[in-house]
Amino acid sequence: MLKNDWELHHICLVVRDWNDTLDYYQSARMGVNVGPQVMYLDYRNGGPAEFYSNDKLPRTNGGSGPGKPLKVESKRERRKEEEKRKRYKFMDKDCQVGDLLLEIGQNRSIPLEGITHLCFNVPDINAETDKLLEKGCKLMSCITQSDIILENHIDTRKYGNVDISFRPPVLQHEQAWIDHVRSHPNLKDWKFHGIGIGIRDLDKAVEYWEMLDIIDFQSETEIDSNSLAPINVSSESMESNFKARVRVGQVGSVAFEFIQPLEGASIYHESLDSRGEGVADIAFKVADLEKEAATMIYRGMPVVFNGKPKNGPAFACFDARENNGNILVKLIQRD
């Protein structure tokens, strides 16, 4: 079921050093540092926020694995963390990339960096949460203020390792902040399209997400690198020779592209090898792909995969993984 009343608020990228990532986005001219979010200005008279975390669930990670923790916490460190969770203080650094708010979280001990969740503003958090809980999902965490739910995280990580969170509709102060941020003169005219998710079993992933009843899938397609028409975005020849199964679905306005590699080496094989299932790329539609590609290459992000399918727009994937939580940036030619 297409969720027309779900409005994307942000996607969250968790890295070990958020300053490095923010600096990377700004120095590459992809985004603008916009500081912490201001949602709590609209709830400042309600007292401190409380944070609940379901400790029975695996911690948020940028992939399903393989991957070994960088650090093993001591019992003392775990107790300190539990005390922090009892009284929640919202901390984030954010980057505006085109019309996308990229929330950047820092966790120095996270085993695998990457995109962890997408947050949607919905008319009724309780109703949307209950629907997913009835489908067998678990509540990962909840931020409340008095009797108001400010954000719920629902565990939808079974296939694709990405969870969904809900917030209430945007109110006055936050809307003013959003409008101000999006008017920044240095922002690129990029329109957020969606995420590409590396998956091991496409059929099981589609069955699971259809069961959640929050996505509308298109018919299955195939990526065959040999069938893509060449486009003029790079002087370097692309040697990729691979095939993959693909299903694209809409969650609100966001495209979820599930990709199961079949044969040959590819960026999606690399993503599965390095993080397990999880978000491999974030995609934007642009007015002039060739112009944007020249800028990206000049800024040190080489093209790793590009072309024009028979029934679709030209695209190019850029290697921003080293400083971007192991996430590629994909640009798609707008109509």
CATH class of the largest domain: Alpha Beta
And the CATH topology of the largest domain?
2,3-Dihydroxybiphenyl 1,2-Dioxygenase, domain 1
What is the residue-mean pLDDT, rounded to a whole number? 89
Q: Report the CATH superfamily of the largest domain.
A: 2,3-Dihydroxybiphenyl 1,2-Dioxygenase, domain 1
Overall strand count: 18
Q: Going across the major beta sheet, what is the strand order?
A: 2-4-5-1-6-9-8-7-3
What is the molecular shape? globular
Give me the secondary-structure category.
alpha+beta
Biggest sheet features: 9 strands, mixed
Query: Would you identify the regions where 5 or more consecutive residues have pLDDT less than 50?
Result: 67-75, 84-90
SSE order in H/E notation? EHEEHEEEHEEEHEHEEEEHEHEEE
CATH architecture of the largest domain: Roll
How many alpha or pi helices?
A: 7
Our count of domains comes out at: 2
**What's the N-to-C terminus distance?**
26 Å
What's the short version?
The chain has 335 residues and is of the alpha+beta class.
Question: How does this structure look, described?
Answer:
The structure is a single chain. This protein is of the alpha+beta class and 335 residues long. The chain folds into 2 domains: 7-182, 2,3-Dihydroxybiphenyl 1,2-Dioxygenase, domain 1; 191-333, Roll (2,3-Dihydroxybiphenyl 1,2-Dioxygenase, domain 1), CATH 3.10.180. Helix content is 22%, strand content 34%. It has helices at 18-27, 75-86, 125-134, 172-182, 202-212, 267-275, 289-298, and strands spanning 7-15, 32-33, 50-53, 93-97, 100-106, 114-121, 138-145, 148-155, 163-167, 191-198, 216-217, 221-224, 243-251, 254-263, 278-286, 303-307, 315-318, 328-333. Strands 2-4-5-1-6-9-8-7-3 form a 9-stranded mixed β-sheet, with helices on one face. Strands 10, 11, 12, 13, 14, 15, 16, 17 and 18 form a 9-stranded mixed β-sheet that branches. Strand 4 (93-97) and strand 5 form a beta hairpin. One of its GO terms (molecular function) is methylmalonyl-CoA epimerase activity. Residues 191-334 form the VOC domain. Keywords: Metal-binding.
